[in-house]
């Protein structure tokens, strides 16, 4: 099942996507919902960010090749994480499928994409073992963890490198039935494949992260966990269009523009 | 004016605190409000976390003595921040005035308090100069940035060191009129003063942080910014009661307990 959040006729809410038609609901996938009987055409609505998270978690370094390639670019020894220490991103930076990523005037050329699987939490959860960890998951969507690498290296935190407004495209919708082992992440730059990897070839998988996290913290409905990326990105330029596809979910597409151009 | 969020007769909402009486409102300080005409006694309600933030910002290292003392404890050279790089904390960890901080079973003895000024954002804001930066502030409350120092040093991120459930007491209310230059932060451990410092003796003040942050990101109503702490804390033990007072706001009091004791 696919949950989509959208705006039609001035109202924002949730619906269930079937092919290119949306069955409108009252309520949401977290607190409960009922069909209104109304239907919208997908191409007649504005797609919104699928959920504004209560807490925005991010796995950071979670694929071996990405860690090695990023270290190589900096001339450093790769520092492969030995346990699942979760990190954070910020809600201000979220934009929807189809919206523009706006690169600030003073950013360097080192602006990169990171195509990521996003876990959407559906139920409050604490102290979940790995075997039951996925029971709190509502479904999966797609994120692009846009990064300004010069700020990432020079600042004390990742605040503007990762969380500048528009740097976190997410969507287009939430897929509740995904075969993680069969999924592939494919990133296209201006229509040509530039990065691809098996989505589930993570250092620490979704269940491992959720189990480790919920030993100390409570996950809440609407929390999101971005699972990290593999490979590297070329430097992105004004006008570039980046598509992150995860097979079985869909494709998140956003154009990159330089502020003031 | 003091905004308090509380539960009375099974309902949670906002009121205006005058002495020890609460004037109940419909709505909230962010979207608008009107008096209901009902009044509650302060000691008859349960005080709640004053706001569940959209994004939970934290200045981290923002007082010179704290940076120096923390570095000295680790036998390192202090690394004084040279610019206001904001960090993040997580909403799961928030608890209200009067609730217990629960130290996990496997935490070391190195559990510390950090008494902090908390800025509550009242209006959406971007690109604010320093002179106008405080115009987006609704008011101020108090935070205790509880930290497990062994995890803080050993983990790749601050997730459990800073964001374990109950590690972020905040409250008791929001004061809208505070003379920052006159305010003093006083931390008491079991009734005896253990740390005190002028609240506004920060490396980077509230207006400087807001101006720097809003160059890249949009602040939203209900966002909070924890401004960092000065001095150091002794190791906290089962049963310890920590009070963080900021003169002109009030006192945030929480007991620390070890899980399973």
Explain how this protein is built.
The structure is a homodimer of 261-residue chains. With 261 residues, chain A is mainly β. Chain A has two domains: 1-47, FAH (SH3 type barrels), CATH 2.30.30.370; 49-258, Fumarylacetoacetase-like, C-terminal domain (Fumarylacetoacetate hydrolase, domain 2). Chain A is built from four helices and 19 strands. In chain A, the strands form three sheets. In chain A, strands 1, 2, 3, 4, 5, 6, 7, 8, 11, 12, 14 and 17 form a twelve-stranded mixed β-sheet that branches. In chain A, a hairpin with a 2-residue loop joins strand 1 (2-8) and strand 2. The termini of chain A are far apart. The model of chain A has no long low-confidence stretch (mean pLDDT 96). Chains A, B: GO terms for molecular function: catalytic activity; metal ion binding.
Order of helices and strands of chain A: EEEEEEHEEEEEEEHHEEEHEEE
The gyration radius over C-alpha positions of chain A equals 18 Å
Shape of chain A: globular
Largest sheet of chain A: 12 strands, mixed
Task: Assign the CATH superfamily of the largest domain in chain A.
Answer: Fumarylacetoacetase-like, C-terminal domain
CATH architecture of the largest domain in chain A: Alpha-Beta Complex
In oligomeric terms, what are we looking at?
homodimer
Q: Give the number of domains of chain A.
A: 2
